[in-house]
Amino acid sequence: MASKLNQLKCKAGQASQFVAKHGTAYYRQLIDQNKQYIQEPPTVEKCNLLAKQLFYTRLASIPGRYQSFWKELDCVKQLWKNKHELKVEDAGIAALFGLECYAWFCAGEIVGRGFTFTGYYV
Hints:
Low-confidence stretches: none
Number of domains: 3
Distance between the termini: 32 Å
Helix content: over 70%
Mean pLDDT: 88
Number of helices: 4
Oligomer: single chain
Shape: flat
């Protein structure tokens, strides 16, 4: 355990040296490439204004997303009513989507447990 801790300290030291040496150049390059997104003047008041604009813009988008949800649900209902006309490709896509949702659920459960796999002991 002590050797792994020393390895971790060594790696952390190397990473901090790399960041200290190259971090400033990377920061300047990143700022130069994204100047069009920087608001002038860069003040706390401007940041607060942008945060409020983002919040209320997302709040205003809820009715549109609500309508889109019900349109999608209506499409699914129509597919279910006409399931006898359903193609194998469409059923396969739906099955893959369901499998993907289940896999994300399982991955979320594993992450929530701290990346541990548990089982039942008999």
